[in-house]
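Justification of resources, computational component.

The compute hours requested in this renewal are based largely on the per-chain cost of generating structure records like the one below. Each record pairs the submitted sequence with a full structure-token output. That output is archived, and it is also reused by downstream analysis tasks.
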Amino acid sequence: MNLRERLGALALFLLGAAAFLIAGEYSFDAQIFPRLICVVMMICAIGLGLRSLSPERVAAKLKESEASPDYPVDEEGPPRILYAGLVLVVAYVAGVRWLGFATATTIFIPATALAFGLRDWKWIVFGTAVFVGLTTYLFVYVFRTPLPRELPLVLLGLG
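The structure output for this chain reads:
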């Protein structure tokens, strides 16, 4: 049994459920996309939780722990990367309202990529630019939903 996967699944599910409830405060048109993402996130969390319970995985973990008595099966608790991910998400959610969507996302995506071990700056910059550009276009021009004002633009007198 893998405690890390179960705790990660629980944390992701609770985060998705909380975001789903928070999105209910938006107007109907504005809540469709966030709630869709939350439902996908909760389904993936359930899948991760069920995967951690599969007999094959439990047997494999048991066999590994028998082969190496020093192998910590469940004693470590959640990995530090889980904590880093949760802190980054909470900081991002708080930062979007204060910094604006594009600024907060431009900080969040590279920080998350680096925390999770990605080191190729070309792909980090490219992915961030594409995500911010497409998401901004989607919300502003397709959903006609205003995004939070950008603090750097406000400070420069442009926003």
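Residues 14 and 42 are 8 Å apart (CA to CA). The chain is about 75% helix and 0% strand.
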